[in-house]
Amino acid sequence: MQQQSAQLSWEQHMQRPLFGLALAFAVAYAVPIVRPDASRDVVEVCTAVEWVVWGAFALDYVVRLALAEQRRVFVRTHWLDLGAVLLPMLQPMRLLRLVSTLLLVGQRARMASQIKLTTYVGGAVVGLLMFGSLAVLSVERDSPDGNIRTLGDAVWWSFTTMTTVGYGDHSPTTGLGRMLAVGLMLSGIALLGVVTANIAAWFISRFEKDDVEERRQTEAIRELTEEVRRLRGEVAALKGTSVE
């Protein structure tokens, strides 16, 4: 129980610092893509920041594992975290660092009790839209047959892909770009399902509240009717007694 309390305490204390590092990762990932003419020193600093942020989330996983009371259960129930930690080690590609860090940030955000579902879904939509745009721009901009050349084109493509509209005016031509498109489409469908389910649950809860309120009012009217009948009976009995 003490180890479990230590694990929970660690998770609570590390939420804000890790989310701050996630913002630093977003800036470090975006700068070389938005500014392709950035100096080599700037690119190296951004790369170092990306590795540091990924390392911080990996260390967070290791510490949580060490503090867990049942480590096998922890690994089994946090397999996605483990996969995200190991992914960049298998092949240190920049895109893999992006995917692994997004997975780790997403898993960590789900653990934050103060984050409501609406906030989490909204953050996931914005994050996927932003990083999807940057990622596809980085792999498609230099493609000879590519038609996604600017950040505006990339954002428009990401938005139409996530919403599964797909106008076709912009589309990836490289293998990595198409893999990103598949990921964005699946993520968009999943998030749309979550939003739809959340709206449906809200309506159902409202209907249930109205039904409960209606039943309460009906019960109150029934009790009031019974009370009136009882009072009439007592009044009638009193009248009969006075006549005698």
Automatic annotation (TrEMBL):
Coiled coil: 214-241
Keywords: Coiled coil, Ion channel, Ion transport, Membrane, Transmembrane, Transmembrane helix, Transport
Residues spanning the membrane: 117-137, 179-205
Main localization, broad class: membrane
Magnesium as UniProt keyword: no
UniProt-listed InterPro entries: K_chnl_dom, VG_K_chnl, Volt_channel_dom_sf
Protein's UniProt keywords contain Ion transport: yes
Positions of the Potassium channel domain: 131-203
Pfam families from the UniProt entry: Ion_trans_2
The protein, known as: Potassium channel family protein
